[in-house]
Amino acid sequence: MGATNKIIIEPVTRVEGHGKVSILLDENGQVTRARLHIVEFRGFERFIQGRPYWEVPVTVQRLCGICPVSHHLAAAKAMDVIVGADKLTPTAEKMRRLMHYGQTYQSHALHFFHLVSPDVLFGFDADPAIRNIIGVIKKFPELAVQGVMMRKFGQEIIKVTAGKKIHGTGAIPGGINKNLSIAERDSLLKDIDQQIEWSRGALEIAKNYTVENLGELADFGSFDSNHLSLIREDGAMDLYDGGIRMIDSEGNKVIDHFNYQNYSDIIAEEVKDWSYMKFPFIKDQGTDNGWYRVGPLARMNTADFIDTPEAELARQEFKAVTGGKPNNITMAYHWARMIEVLHSAEKIKELLLDEDLQGEDLVVKGERRSEGVGLIEAPRGTLFHHYKVNEDDQVTMCNLIVSTTSNNVPMNLAVEGVAKKYLSGTEITEGLLNRVEVAIRAYDPCLSCATHALGKMPLTVSVVDHNGQIVDKKST
Amino acid sequence: MSDKIKFTIDEVEIEATPGQTIMQAADEAGIYIPRLCAHKDLLPFGSCRVCTVMVNDRPQAACTQPVSPGMNVESETEELRQIRTNLVEMLFVEGNHYCPFCEKSGNCELQALGYRLGMLAPKYPYMFNKHDVDASHPDIYIDHNRCILCARCVRSSKELDGKNVFQFVGRGIHKKVAFNSDTDLAATDVSVTDKAIENCPVGAILKKGVGYAVPIGKRKYDSQPIGSDIEARKAEAK
Fold this sequence. Notes:
The complex is a heterodimer. By secondary structure, chain A is of the alpha+beta class. Chain A has a domain at 19-42 and 407-475. Chain A has 16 helices and 15 strands. Chain A has helices spanning 44-47, 56-60, 68-82, 90-122, 133-139, 141-162, 182-212, 214-217, 286-289, 296-302, 309-321, 333-352, 403-406, 408-422, 430-441, 446-449, and strands at 19-25, 31-38, 171-172, 175-176, 226-231, 243-247, 253-258, 267-270, 279-282, 292-293, 371-378, 381-389, 395-401, 459-464, 470-475. Chain A has a four-stranded mixed β-sheet. In chain A, a hairpin with an 8-residue loop joins β8 (267-270) and β9. Chain B is of the alpha+beta class. In chain B, the strands form three sheets. In chain B, strands 2-1-5-3-4 form a five-stranded mixed β-sheet, with helices on both faces. Chain B is globular, with a radius of gyration of 19 Å. Classes of the chains: A alpha+beta, B alpha+beta. The A-B interface holds A 50-52, 54-55, 58-59, 62, 162-164, 167-170, 172-173, 177-178, 363, 392-394 and B 100-101, 103, 133, 135-136, 141, 208-218.
């Protein structure tokens, strides 16, 4: 391949996520840049055009099989705006929240126990034959079972709120289509204390791992960045609703309590020719500086407090590591994620004991509008859904900014940091390959979640010299 | 002389009234014969052929064939189950039936019949034909992607509503339901309360804004297969 040749990447798959990393070298063989190419192409924004708006929350959730509830709820929230439901009934909002906490719980548990625990329990350099979920089951059977049972619990919550465990229909424009029966409530209540106990245990593992290895992890694919999430009016972390807050790497509030109906006033998206994923950025700061991180780490950084007692104590411990300043350590995502698992479990218990869930008032409607935006804090970060609907009730425009898209630049930087530190010469060693994978996995991107029961990403890493020649290429 | 006609379906003796079709007599006796175009309030039509039975060893549409004394009708045979399944599968591949997000799921007769017949995945290639939607009417939504050309809307409008809103145009693979107007559905005299709207067996004619109001678990075919209401009469008939 000559210097003018380009590597062209086709959309190789529609459903599963696949990652491809290029590490670019300068004339002296030093790493200049690393790129994570996302080569999946979905097309939802186009093919829902012309469909009736009430169908959308059920259709778009099929973007994903791990956190479909995020898309279901973000779209339903946008459609609430379309049907003029400015304030849902308590039953509707709380049922949706229960669905969302159930989802966050199962998604985080899946990621931590299934995909991350092999790295944490065996170390990055352990033999890949052992460093997988089967290895975890063999050596730590009790922990493996906990992971499965925690995911199951979250899925059961989704089933009683959305109708089925994957791709249900619970949230409808203006509300919800069912309440929680006493029998459903009791079937969950009997397990909740055990779930909270297991959540404490998972949090302990993630915390101890991070604190004990802080020396190595602190600069492992880490970098200063903005952090963005929704925030409740009183500054509490809120996974379901709120205004947009963005802080910089020092903790200064750049944006606060911004009404997300107007998100397009502050956020734009850049398209690059080497990835199917767009690059969102804050308009004021431009493409070079305006990118930001989302997800559990960002939420720990933006929140003033968490409104459940045990998770709040955990948050304070988390903040103490960086002296109250924002935490910019990529690998701290895992710790933050487990704080959210405990928070979700606490919230689930609170909601199950709330009699509003047995209410009969499920749907409200008001003045019909032609445009609506719905945001939610999905397990992987802030998720944007934006729709326009014509007078005949058909969708005419759809824009989605999914969490992994917002973490696009950060993931590239994390990979670049790892490559600069661990690539010597031009040969891709097993150690480098592992570390690239670990850095990407910290962000829990969709490309790792949709696949890989064995905790392996379908990742190809190439080292490209200054002439555009591939000098080494390896796959996991 | 008795005014009843005696015949058998799958070796069970049935008493029918003269002039009844095999399907009408079977329904009364609590024997379900699968069907899509047939509807109890509409005249016999015989287009989908899903109700095909063997009458004295010859294939006949149960919805149009009148009963006659001593006829030997076979319905629940493996051969007929296979023929019916093939017909249903062809309907699935000819239209664009995305059950996973169709709001008619759980209440759809085509889907319910697919389940009842034990259809897994269609063995024929999907045709992915391009079809239109008509959302012009304020209360009614038409999605031609899901139309199975059963003509229930055409017949209901004429026979039950006293209107003439729907009609077929085109032939063969180009056949489709059209509206009695120069422009769109909104320009017809259709009303959301028309039987033509209610009697659509699939998600082709929908009332706007209803969507997924009925939760999973409470939909018509969530807990029992299609035809169960007819089969429940068997106990009463005895």
